[in-house]
Design a protein that fits this description.
0% strand, 20 helices, single chain, mainly alpha, 397 residues
Length: 397
């Protein structure tokens, strides 16, 4: 592979610089309340309030509240009453106990200091992982200031934390397979992002990283079982079952449909019923699984060709599997965009390829507005990006 032309690189640098500057100004003015340069948020760091409340529940001996949606929502309204512009409703903790274990240190801090520490720390480890992936510092800074990062910061979400083990693990599959498996196992706290990782390793017959991954997940599960107890894990399983019901999805869709990036949400926004929307989601999931199995079975990590394309394909496919990805999750796609743009094939970019990269980079800015207007284009842009990665992988073979 070659690098982009000087003209492409100059244009990309200028574009990322202008967009990144806008994003930084938007985030800073939104947090300080001094101005509004885009979509207005009435509540800052709402998702981190859920995380912090769950950690506080542990330290206050109220662990049973964590997977009780009404109880954990009430706890947030009680703990953060002074900073809430309105009373919260339906703010569940939808993560396995693995994530609560990671959150415990932040539960010891006041919520303002906790969210600042959380975002700085997770952004730092994400940057380190992207550097290990081979991205130059300029590209890493562009990703951390990309439009998708806005949603991560304003929501107080964990996408930086997810990107670190995902890209760090994929970067090390060839050189350090055991360490790669350990890192990828640390992503299991977020099942909707992690679900295709073991599928890919199994298809590639990557037994060493797969065993390391399984051992890491087992060790984390054992620690949390001993710390939180079996009843807490049973409560999570029950909550996960409820989250998969049509009633729970309808509640979530009603509240956060503007932020959703899934095929199922797109179907419902277009006015399709629950059945057709679910069928659309299942079709996308089947396509994603088949494509990832083909890509990793035919192009194993031990082969140097197609590494970036295989990585991009895996991440794009992840967004077709889960019905629960939201706007802030799109940050996971941005390193893949950078990899494909910075390492074009010897015969150059395909027609329209750079336009797709541009659209995917910017779509987090417009996702909410498009969804509210009834034009949910985000899944289509992700599909097109996956198609580019697939075409380039086939050509690399």
């Amino acid at each position: 592979m070659t690098g982009p032309s000087k003209a492409d690189l100059r244009i990309a640098t200028l574009f990322c610089g202008i967009v990144g500057l806008y994003d930084l100004l938007y985030v800073s003015t939104t947090i300080t309340g001094t101005a509004v340069l885009g979509y207005k948020f009435d509540l800052l760091f709402p998702d981190f309030l859920v995380f912090h409340a769950a950690a506080r529940a542990f330290f206050e001996g109220k662990l049973a509240l964590v997977y009780d949606t009404d109880a954990i929502t009430h706890l947030q309204n009680t703990l953060y009453a002074a900073r809430l512009p309105y009373e919260l409703g339906f703010r569940p903790f939808l993560y396995p106990p693995l994530w609560l274990f990671d959150l415990l240190p932040f539960g010891l801090l006041p919520v303002g200091l906790a969210v600042a520490s959380f975002l700085v720390l997770t952004a730092g480890i994400c940057a380190a992982a992207l550097r290990a992936l081979g991205l130059r510092l300029e590209a890493v800074l562009a990703i951390l200031a990309a439009p998708a990062a806005i949603s991560v910061v304003i929501a107080g979400q964990n996408t930086f934390r997810s990107g670190a083990p995902l890209y760090g693990g994929l970067a090390l599959l060839e050189r350090r397979p055991i360490l790669a498996g350990i890192l990828l196992g640390l992503l299991a706290y977020k099942p909707q992002v992690w679900v295709l990782v073991p599928v890919a390793l199994l298809a590639a017959r990557g037994w060493r990283p797969l065993i390391a991954l399984a051992a890491t997940v087992a060790a984390q599960s054992l620690v949390t079982l001993l710390l939180f107890g079996a009843d807490f894990w049973l409560a999570f399983i029950a909550a996960a079952r409820r989250a998969g019901t049509s009633a729970e999805f309808a509640e979530m869709f009603a509240r956060v449909h503007a932020h959703m990036t899934t095929l199922m949400a797109a179907g419902k926004i277009f006015g399709l019923g629950d059945g057709p929307s679910m069928a659309l989601q299942l079709a996308g999931a089947l396509l994603a699984v088949v494509t990832v199995v083909w890509a990793f079975a035919r192009h194993r990590p031990s082969q140097s060709r197609g590494h970036n394309e295989r990585t991009a394909l895996l991440v794009a496919a992840t967004f077709l599997v889960s019905p629960h990805t939201l706007n802030y999750d799109l940050l996971l796609l941005m390193p893949a965009v950078a990899l494909l743009f910075l390492h074009p094939p010897a015969d150059g970019y395909r027609p329209g390829e750079r336009v797709i990269y541009l659209a995917l980079w910017l779509i987090p800015h417009f996702c909410m507005g498009l969804n509210e207007a009834g034009v949910p284009l985000t899944p289509l842009v992700i599909l097109l990006f996956g198609a580019v990665a697939l075409a380039r992988l086939r050509a690399a073979a």
